[in-house]
Records
---
Amino acid sequence: MESHIDRSLLVASYLQCLVQGLSFPEGPVFAPDGSLWFVELKAGNLARWHKGELIRVPVGGAPNGAAADSEGRIWFCDSRQNAIRRLDPRSGTIETMADRVSGLPLQKPNDLAFDRAGNLIFTCPGDSREEPTGTVCCLSKNGEVSIVASGLRFPNGLAFIEDGKTLVIAETYLQRLWRGVWDTADCQWHEPQVWIEGVEGKPGPDGMALGADGCLYVAVYGGGGIRAYSPDGRLSAIHEIPGSNPTNCAFDPTGQLGLVVTEAAHGKLWSLPGLGPGSPLHQR
């Protein structure tokens, strides 16, 4: 549990601003071709940044977390349309991949990640900032949608650690991270338990990414930085970011850009070149 942060953990990392003037950037992800995608939640855009060139793709709604599959298609949460959607950059086609669970509409899906088998796990916080009504869902590779966890106060970012065997979920408004065993065969989250409590910065932990060093790098919305947690749950470093609201982060597989971070207060996309590469992401 965090308490009275050791100032020696603060790291003044080299920072490079890749893009500015963004409208609430979120969900950074690298596609197989090396391009960096992210969303502009308040502008209803997906955006592609590659070799200094920025291209915006209007998709409407309120796009949030994003993930890339092996074909280079971008899957994203839409918290306004209550759906999981997918963009094919080659054709420009946008499809709705899921919008209901147990016969009811999805509740403002927020972030998502593929597991080792190609199942898509995503958080649905709905209106759970004050009441524990948030859920975590799974869109299986067979197309079935199920609820895998409930009773959470704003489930948000998520990541797989320990070679994909463990799923970590951020419960933002209680400033804590959960972890549990993930079963790819039955799409079940077994024995979930609170792993890290008292993450400093309110409202709390948001998106996250696993580093090649085994540390989990967590963007803390309201905390002005990225917190790195060692595999035993110990806070090992705090990488400060200009702006109080980092929303999410992703590692460049090539290592060139290191860890990229979306920050909403100033509308910027940052690169921390010294922190890469990360652990490879799973894809469908």
---
Amino acid sequence: MTTVSAFQRRAARPAARAARAALWERVTFWAVVGLVLMFSQGWVMQITGPVVAVDPDVSASLRNYFFPVYAVILILAASRWKALAAAVVRTPLLTLLVGLTFVSGLWSIDPEVTQRRALAVALTTLGGMAVAVRFPQWPRFMEVLGAAFGILVVLCFASVFLQPTYGIMTSDFPGAWRGVWDHKNELGYNMTVGFVVLMAAAMLNPRRRWLWAGLAVGALMLILASTSKTSLVSCLAAAFCVGVVWIGRRGPAGSVMAAYICLALLFAAGFMFVLDPGLLFKVLGKDETLTGRTRIWSAVMHQIVKRPWTGYGYGAVWTETSRWGPLPWISKEQGFVIHEAHNGWLGVWLEMGYIGLCLVAATVIEVWARTILGIFRRPSAYFTLPFLVIFSLHSITEAALLAQNDFIWLIFSAAALRVGSPEDESPLPDERKPKRPVPIRARPGRPRRVAASYR
């Protein structure tokens, strides 16, 4: 009978602990991937069907699906509560912005809705922070997001070919792909962010570069199939940013060249805008009203001037049922009921007044400043620069700022926490140049003197 000695048992303990740690790492990785997939809301159409408007009762029941997600966020935050507390201290503007959503319930036109949605946006922001703290290294963080977007790319193609009534639009824009979302513009915007995430994952993880690059090509194909010209232009701008960062990280000469390319492009764009202001709209395939958005902005501004300092309460405007609130007057000017301001900045101003608008602007500017300061020396610039370009452009035409249960805001919250962190200083594996061995010369006939290691 074979017996195991105490020495053998002690020797096996480190291996067992390493195996448990590796298993916990894999479980956490895929749990966070599932969390991002839930916030993407690509599963909603499978429940509601390809309908134009979701029934209010069904919409209310969809909130129940997020309760398990909130539980995962709280567990993830509790497991790293010290690091998370320090991170919250490092991001005071984002923390104050989320706190203001709760405070706006004091003057909200619907306090119950404001408090409920404020809690949702707080948990969404906390989820982004918890993910950033759990995966502090940018290569691993990008692989988490890359795995989620890779699954979404595959699901979009499967929806188109296996469920064409779901994956392809049949009204408004017949033939345009929408994947797992209910509109082609959502597919275009989400896959533009996905393209950036997958390209950054490819640049930051050389061992699996071809996997992430192949999925990025799939995301680009989905953008083309969505026929969203705005998303295509944003994607091209993001690819240009990735190229600029790559050139700038080649050395001092590359940094100068990248800066020159950016300045030349900005000068050319400004000259073309002065020469032909309507050229940008022609490229995007839109009229000067941005498909009627400017009329919506005008109607929203008419309601903002009534309560410019406080707004009407976070999340309380677009589900209002009374006859005298801001939504009926905005809809009356448009001739139909709308559900968002189609401008993130105006939406925040309408809901939380000047204070909310200033806090959002300060938060975005802070993230931009940190990104620009480290654009050629931090690997995170492969993601943060193109992502901020897309996020900022999208906020002009859609309600992209401070959105609850939205995975783009979750990603922004994580990026705001991680950009400029101390873990973001090391070069990439393929950027490390091996040092040439220095030959040691000794005079012939004499012993070579070697310096003592303790000196």
